[in-house]
Specification:
globular; mainly alpha
Length: 81
């Protein structure tokens, strides 16, 4: 996947995670970073479960979204502590 595709997937996944987690997001740059890192975390989670959604860019967005939601949840846990 090209760098531009990673940024687009990261932006979409980060924004979706911010919306689902009932937050206003962390800003465009932070949402992109959150989505890209979420893609890595999501790939790790899906790999542990033995699941890999196909579908090219849509599958990548789903994996990154799941990872980004997990990251937002973890960061909010640490924020409260």
């Amino acid at each position: 996947m090209s760098l531009l595709a990673f940024i687009i997937v990261g932006l979409i996944a980060g924004w979706l995670a911010g919306q689902v987690m009932k937050g206003g997001g962390y800003g465009v740059i932070a949402d992109i970073i959150l989505g890209i890192v979420g893609g890595i975390v999501g790939g790790w989670i899906f790999g542990l479960l033995g699941i890999w959604p196909g579908g090219g860019i849509i599958g990548a967005i789903v994996v990154a979204f799941v990872g980004a939601v997990f990251l937002v949840w973890v960061t909010r846990l640490f924020k409260k502590a």
